[in-house]
Amino acid sequence: MSSSDSHLSRLSYALRALLSVMAMIYLLMPRQLEAEAISKITITGLSRITEREFLYMFGIREGGEADNDSIAKGIKTAFLKGCFNDIRVYSSGGGALNIEVVERPFVEAIKVDATGPISPRKLKDMFGLREDTEYNEAITEKAVAALKGTLAKKGLPYAKIKTDSLKGKTPAGVIIHLTVDEGQPLIIKHLAINSPNNNTEAEVKDILSIREGDIYDKDSIDALIEKAKDTMIKNLLYFNPVVSEDVYDEATGTLTINVDPGKKLALSFKGNNKISSDALKKEMPFVEYGSVNEDTIDEAAASIEALYHKSGFINVKIEYKINDKPGETDLVFLITEGEAFTIADIVFSGTTVKPEKLFEAMVSKKDSPYNPDTDEDDEDALVGCLQSEGYSAASVRTFKPEINDAKKTATLNIEIEEGSRLIIKEVKVAGNIEIADDKILAAADIKPGRAYVEAEIFNARQTALTYITQQGYADADIKIERQGAPETTVILNISEGKRYLFGDTIIRGNTRTKWEVFRRVLKHKRGEPLNMAVVYGEMRELYKTSLFTSVNISAVNTGEGVKDIVFEVKEADAGTIDYGLGYSDYEGIRGFFEVKYINLQGMDRQIAFKARLSEQSRRVSLTYDEPWFLGNTLPFNATLLYERKEQRNLDSKTVLYRTEKYSSSVGVGNNFTEKLKGMLSYEFSFTNTWDVQPDAVLTNEDTGTLVISGIVPSLIYDGRDNPFNPTSGILAGTTLKVASKFFLSQANFAKLSGYVNYYEGLSKGLVLALSLRSGIGQGWSNTEDMPLIERFFLGGSTTVRGYSQDNLGPKGSSGDPTGGNAYLMGNAELRITIIDNLGLVTFLDSGDVWSKINEYSLSGLKYTTGLGLRYMTAAGPIRLDYGYKLNRGQNEGTGRFYFSIGQAF
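Given the sequence above, the corresponding structure tokens read:
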């Protein structure tokens, strides 16, 4: 065969092979789907998410239409979920669509068996793989190798790790079983500190907190060494110390630490009478820089001078002496303080702006210490104030302090050059194509005839830009142009960019939380203009559920002018256990224990069991919360409660009465706004009351068993900035309880109560807190007085301080409180932060209780005043109060102490 024939033969073979492959691809390739109505959808292989969520991502439904393009788009979107290896779609005729999915293997659970000092839970945390993440053998082997390295650093170099991969409960789930034999640990039998300074050796050994007998944990030792260096610098004033691990001798178990402390700084001040040495030391930069040299000393001197300038000592002189010795540097600052100067007056010239506005803008104030360091800040503030009045070219020509050495005062003479004032003549829009001029102008809301103020124009630009982006123009921009002076035309130059629409929404990372929870929150719809402000609002709503520790958002281009929104969530622990101990003067030692599950059935439902015990009461409750009742945004609550308590008279040490109560309640609520919510409940209780002091009995219902049943509507407004320690805002509420035979109650009465708390931060560390609380009650039919357990009482640490618990108001013949059908109470507190978490409170309380509503009178109110200490904690302040009675009655004590946790109101 000739060479040319051979080439032709090979070419012919290649062509036949290519045609065969093309035929194979053609036969295997899915047929083009014409757009047709979908009569039925069958999905197989799906286990990790619901069919509803899958079809939402896919963008198809029964009764809708599908073609190859929409199917391809659906597959692309579904892959963003991150849990599929393959998705195949084919038609079986008659509008029936079959979808086969192959899910990625994932780590369903990690179980650890271990022998050694490290618990299985900690080993699980150290393991590189996490539950609900992708699984494959290579990743597992890498995680095992990393765990071995971690254990070696922790003093367990001989650890052995075995892994078994077991089939999980779900088709794609894998259970990883780790068996860890930690082996013999390396033990620190001897600790040696090498240092040229014996004192340093003892100091470092104490700082390191390494003890003989500890496991040789390399990571922990490195962290302790860094801590030791930091402590030597900050607390002991050593500079450039070197602390390093020399060697661990496995044969002898000896750990050797080398220490070169560097130089120690002996710092002192002379001549400082007005400012303490401790205050000056806080200004020193040596710890921050870790060195003492000419530059840091000059910076320290400048800091001292600036501190004196703040107090008006404008002539202060700072000198220093430095003496280098082996191992130590002596640094002495010599301070000549001079006299303090105050600002006698501030005089403006060359301006038509009212002086009051200029005074308000300045840092410097009349009769305050004169600080020359703030002169430039004052100039900048004045220019900003003038520009806000429309003088865009304004400047401060001269800023001259006139010093009077005799009177120790300074007069600030400020000459201003205003320039021409710009007035907005008209506002125009240019460059916009799709969005109408009037819509943009309405959003910007720039009024002709007003002064041209840069800050206001910037805010108007941002408002208009927000409106444009909300219409789907995510890349839009606005540039401001100004033409003419002193009357100027403002032009908003619009660059709309490309318009985008919402595509699909994909949730990633949810394993316990069901798709329906997200659907409640997601307000945007496919095909609407892309508005990221809506998406960020949805992110905030997801955080409010407390189901997630993180929520991240990304917008993914999936088609011409379409963006899919991907929510990447990390779920919080669904179950929590909480407990605590406390003490109050009335209840004595008290404690609580609570178990809560916040994501029951993956639907954001909560169930909680709580037990509260004290020396005088026992309270156990089981609560269920449903945020989405009957398919609507309607919170539902149900509670079962058991309570047994005894009411005491702290003054006489007698028991006033004892009660045992079984109750249940169900209710629905509605959040009218972010701050205002309402609730309507039905309550049923069975109460047994006994050992009641005879003079406290007013009705037959005050002793024995009593069924109370009724409805309780309530409203609450919460505008506080912090629920535990508010510094601003209002908290207000009102509750009406109506008990009637109609609701199977043995007593008939109505009880209305309300409160308003107001908080205002007067200055840093100073908060004014005011409270007004009141209530009235009235029985009818066979109920003349409200039952004892429903009557109002005052007195105690959260009501009128100075009176013992519930001891203010009507009393029986033996002096025991009987409570009443009406009360009024007011409280005022001035909360002062002394330092860090320590605070002081002064207060004025007033109030009284009346047996009948018609006895209501302001003339008989009792008043108390007092002082209190506060120590802030994460759960609220620990407080100690003393209340003093201002208008006490005959034979009454002067007041009393209270110890408890939480603010009074």
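Residues 423-495 form a domain with the Ubiquitin-like (UB roll) fold (CATH 3.10.20.310). Try to locate this feature in the token string yourself.
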